[in-house]
Amino acid sequence: MSSNKVDDWVGLLQFRDEKFASLVHDNLQEKYIIALAIRVTELCLDAVVLLNNHRISSVPIVLRSALETFADLQCCIKDKSYPEAMTKAQYQRLYELQKHIESDKAAEYRKLGKKLSVWDRFKKADLVELYNGYYSMLSMYAHGNVGALIESNSKDSQVLLGSAYDDEKLLQFFEQAINLAALSIRDSLEFFGVDKATLEYPQKILDKFSKAL
User: pTM for the complete prediction?
Assistant: First the structure.
């Protein structure tokens, strides 16, 4: 990774830490927006650390999780009641885990829970194109299927002792990570009503890497 790109990433994280430290949440929506934005950026940081060490096999998995979290962030920004939907979805997951183990808890979780699929989250966030394109591509890499084997663990007819990578793929994943981080930071700060001059920095990062998503 070039020093300029590392500088962009470090600068963006320093900007996040400085600006988010002054944010105050007064309700659950605001609290979730801060937490989700931080989670997106932390997952993106994990992806960049892996890339810098040429550990590329797990990067699509991490970025897919970051993208799902980004969809939740956008839903939270749009809808004050969305944290409640996330809580119900968590109860639904607990029900799926408990239904074959502890029937009493499972019944309670089923009553409290309501399914919220990945598709529902992206649709509510107006990110359908991102779901059909970028998310689907990451899913192909992330799952242990033929596509992942071809892309990540082989080259021509040779099975690799490690993971396949090249400068173009590393750059692509890096740009996707820094874009997601910058979008999350910009949109969260905009929700909290920071001045336009403050938003210029994450926007500058987005303008630089905007073709990645």
Answer: 0.88
